[in-house]
Amino acid sequence: MSRTLLEQLVTRLAATVGAGFPSAVRDRAALCVLDSVACAIGGQDLPSTRAAQRAAARIDGTGPVPLWGTALTTSLTGAVFANAVAAHGLIHEDMHPASRVHAGTVVIPAALAVAGELDTPVERLLDAVVLGYEAIGQLGDVFDQPAFVRGTLRPSGVLGPFGAAVAVGHLLDLPPDQLVSALAIASSASGGATEWARAGTSDVFAQNALAARGGVQAAFLAAEGLTGPRTAIEGPAGMLAALRLEAGELPTPAPTSLAIDAAYFKRFPACAFTQETVLAGQRLRESVDPASIRALRIESYDMAAYYPGCDNADSLDDPISRQMSNQFNLAAALVDGAPSPSRLLGPLPAEIRRLAQVTSVRSVPELAAQYPARPASRVVATLDDGSVHSAEASGVGLSADEVVEKYRRYSHGRLTTAQAERFRSILFEERGRSSRDLVAPLQSAAEVSLTPPEETRA
Q1: 96 φ, ψ to 5°?
Q2: Which of 25, 51, 276, 442 could form a disulfide with 68 if both were Cys (CB 3.0 to 4.6 A apart)?
Q3: pLDDT value of residue 1
Q4: Cα–Cα distance between 113 and 86 in angstroms, integer?
């Protein structure tokens, strides 16, 4: 009997980790952890984060696991959920372009919470993170079909549970058969329609968190003996069949390539498929007065044009609608210099709304062919005098030094300088310490109220 996709994946992951990853790979994992924690701390004041914290308190109860950047603690699954919502709230998280998954918002809240509870060495935590990203990347290749990519289910919600299950399964030291079951059980947590992009609703911030919690629960259930079908992906009633996708082989990755190396850190707090548009807009702003623009055209790759919410010039009254819209983020870049969290709430300035409404988005073959290896966008502006100006941008991810600066900026006021530096130091330079030591500095003395505003109370 031939081995199933999940069995092949588990065998590959075991061979990949071997006796441990080299320092450079763990450095990359550490950077992903730092970025995810930065985003979560930066998102503490968002309504979605507060709602998640209140829900965790009511559903999951008390416990010792910290909510990053606060003085709050809750249970293991409650912390995974609330921290994942916080990490996703600013839409400033990392992105694995080939799978279209924000892996850090799913894998890292799960791995960090469980590693802290088990008090595992930091090096083992980082290995778990690498494996979680790798599971997402390899399964992402299987699902990389037009019917899925241009469908209505969100890749982070569909593939995310597998990454969390693998990371936690590694920390629990699950044997291969139990890890296969963990992945199979995790398939039941896959989902997440993208109707929020059209409706402007905030449930988007819970989707990755539900995926993270589902993956954690799948790993613990498998550890306790619950089994799942080894054919959960390609079986006659498996996920591929349910999504009307073709059953295929697990592609063989390049021997020196890991999914975590392909992930990038977003420069701007906006949808991943708007990043290049924003940078192109910044370049255009250097030579064009926004007030003189009569029409704008964004030329980009398929996801920037077709992903729900990315081509939206008119329905911009809700935060998520603005975060997703190429039109809004280009207009914000032209008027303000860059999109910022302060523009997500409140009335939209007239000039930003005007520029958004005169902007069209389209995929062009030249740029579509380069994705995901080289995401790029071109912005073409027609001015009142009839002249045409353009700017193009690609490869806008943050450098390692810029991720550290982002972490320090978002943690300022939530963590003391000593706390922030302690977390960074253990993560990068003192990996012989335990994960419990690592998460300890993330407990803040800052006051956080979980009392909802009057108008939202039941």
Answers
A1: -100, 105
A2: 442
A3: 57
A4: 14
